[in-house]
Every structure is written in C-alpha cells, then in structure tokens.
Amino acid sequence: MTLENNNQNQNPPAKKSAVTTILIISLVIVALAGAAGWYLFFRGGSDTDERTVYDKIIRYENAHQLDSLEAALNEYFDTYNSDAFHYSQLKDLHDRFFTERNDWQTAESTLSLEAVRHFLDLHPDGFYLDKANQKYDSLSFARAVEDNTREAFEQYINQFSRGKYLADARKMMSELDNEKLSIEEKTAVMETLTTHFDALGDNDKGSIASTLAAEINSYIGKANPELEDIYAYMSNMHSSGRMIVFNVKNLNVTKVNAGGRNLFNAQFSLEEETYKRGAHATLDTEAGTPAENHTAEDADVQRFSGTAVLNESMKITSLVLRKAQAQSE
Questions:
Q1: Are residues 233 and 220 in contact, defined by beta-carbon separation less than 8 angstroms?
Q2: What would the pLDDT profile of 54-75 be if each residue is shown by its tens digit?
Q3: From the CB of residue 252, how many other CB atoms can be counted at a distance below 10 Å?
Q4: Which residues face 256 on adjacent strands?
Q5: For residues 121 and 134, is the Cβ–Cβ distance under 8 A?
Q6: What is the pLDDT of residue 4?
Q7: What span, in angstroms and rounded, lies between the C-alpha atoms of 84 and 236?
Q8: Residues 242, 243, 244, CA angle at the centre, nearest 5°?
Q9: How many alpha carbons lie under 13 Å from residue 139 in its C-beta half-sphere?
Q10: pLDDT, tens digit (0-9, with 9 covering 90-100), for 143-160
Q11: CA dist., res. 39 & res. 292, Å (int)
C-alpha cells in the first residue's frame, strides 16, 4: 500500500515536465516562424512584392524614365538582399546605370563637344543616349556658329539630317552665301566709283547725281549733305579753271549684310591729277574719247586713300577721302 501510494505521487510531475517541454518547443517553432516571416516580408520582402518592384524597374528602364529608374533601384537595394529572386539581375542593371550616369554627369558638366563624343563612344546604346545626342547636336551647332563659315554649317547639316537647328543652319549658310562677293558685284562697285570721280573731274552734275543714294550719311567731311552741298564742293574744286583727272586704283570690296540688306564697303586709293589746259585735244587711246594734250611735267598729283559705302543699288551712301602721306625717297 505504501509502495503504490509512492508511485502515484511521483507520476504527475514527470507528465507535467513533458508537457512543459512540448510547450517550449512549440513556442520556439512559432518564434522561428515569426522571425522567418518578418525577415521575408520586412527584410527580404515577399516573392510577390519583389516581383512587382522588379516589373516596375524594368518598365522604367524600357521607357527611359531615368529619374524614376534611379529612385526605384535605390529603393530595391534598400529593401532586398542577395537572397531576393531578381537581385543578381538588378545588381547588374544597377551597376551599369550608375556607372553611365556618373560618366554622363561628367561629360555634361564640361560643355565640351569632344567630351560628349567620348561619352557616346563609351555608351553607344546607353540610358543617356537621347540626352547625349541632343547635347551633341546643340554643341555641334554652336561650334558651326563660332566658325561662321559655309563649310561649318554644311558639315552640321550633313551630320544632323534631323537636327534641332537645321533651319537655323540653312538660314545662316544662305546669309553667308549672300555676303560672298561676286565678280559682277565688285565690277559694279568699280564702275560706280569710276563714274562718280569722272563726273567730279568733269564738273558733271547729272552724272555725279546718278551715282549717289537718296540719303547720304557723309561726303568728304560733311555729315548728311544735301545734293546741292556736293555740287558746291565740286564747283569750288573747278574754280581754278584747271583740268582735273581722277584715277581709282587698288580697289578692295567687302560685302556685308545689315538688317537683311547687302552693303558694299569699298577701300581704294585715288590719284588726283591737275593739269593746265592745253591749246588742243588729242584722242585718249584708252577711253577712245578726246582728251587734253598734256604731259606728266604739267601735272600736279595728289594721292588719297578712300573709303566708300554703297547700297544694294550700287549707289554711294558714304564717301571719305584722306590725303596719303608722302612717300620718302
């Protein structure tokens, strides 16, 4: 009876210990499961969430939404670790993107045509291809404008068949073509100046008026002269009664565009030969017209440097003469 009672008293504690052990093991399992769940959902993310983020990143890449792509990549690697399903694939994308982004920021900051060209050579099909091509376009046009030659604009047009500045390049090239002086235009300038000084030497009001623009800015020291002022100057020149012959030489003409109109800047040298009138006239073999018979000993020669501006109608709008310094013997 005593032994039986002792066995009955010892069994309950053993059973209680087993229950406790099972309970502890269960709690550990639950804790581990909870930790694993927290790790998956909050550190590594769920498979579904990770796939959603991956798809979003790929959409940004395909659409070249670079700011969104940068932010999404940073967010992905802040959330997921190397155990994530798309980690290695996106790690490669991440490294390529940020390497190219850094290269582009360097090239863009230099504002150098050569730097952008080097970037395009490094990343011919990269994320920043559109931005780089646009910058290369604008810098190439700026280089052509700086050179300001027909060849430079023609090179831009040939290189950028769909360039942003095609219309501007064609317009500026056309303006340069208009500014290029033709042989016919230089000949016309020479004819106007020759006619003008022949008329001045002959005291011919009609002929001299035919060479002048309606509005004259300056004429041999007088600003905004009237036609009568020029006639008075010419008459005073002939008051001595001597014969005057002018010779225009060493003509150099520059064509410029001013406000959409062409002007011709002429620089030349001028000889003024003054003679006593002879008793008879002979034939001037060069001009084919009668001329006074005179010799070099009779001539009083003065030399001038001249500057004239002619408008599109080849009429003189400005004339300046400066006496040339005597050359030392």
A1: yes
A2: 999 999 989 889 999 999 999 9
A3: 11
A4: 263
A5: no
A6: 52
A7: 103
A8: 115
A9: 17
A10: 999 999 999 999 999 999
A11: 117
C-alpha closest to that of 294 among 308, 310, 277: 277
Give the predicted TM-score (pTM) of the model: 0.49
pLDDT digits (tens, 9 = 90+) for 93-113: 999 999 999 999 999 998 899
Neighbours of 93 (CB within 10 A): 19
- Which one, of 243, 266, 237, lies nearest residue 254 by Cα? 266
Helix (H) or strand (E) holding 179: helix 166-179
Say how far apart CA 311 and CA 10 lie, in whole Å.
130
Tell me the residue length of the chain.
329
Whether 233 contacts 218, CB under 8 Å: no
Model pLDDT for residues 201-239, shown as the tens digit of each residue:
999 999 999 999 999 999 999 999 999 999 999 999 998
Structure tokens, 303 = 């030399």
When the pLDDT of each residue in the chain is averaged and rounded to a whole number, the result is 84
Those residues whose C-beta lies under 8 Å from the C-beta of residue 21, and which sit 6 or more positions away, are: none
Query: What DSSP string runs through 30-45?
Result: HHHHHHHHHIIIIIS-
DSSP annotation of 212 reads B
Q: String of b and e for 107-143 (b: at least 16 CB within 10 Å)? A: bbeeeeeebbeebbeebeebbbbebbeebbbbbbbee
Task: Give CA torsion, residues 10, 13, 14, 15, to 10 deg.
Answer: 120
First to last CA, the chain: 161
Three-class SS state of 19: helix
Please say whether the beta carbons of 141 and 168 come within 8 A: yes
Decide: 212 and 245 in contact? Cβ < 8 Å.
no
What pLDDT score does 30 carry?
64
Angle at 28 between CA 24 and CA 33, to 5 degrees: 150
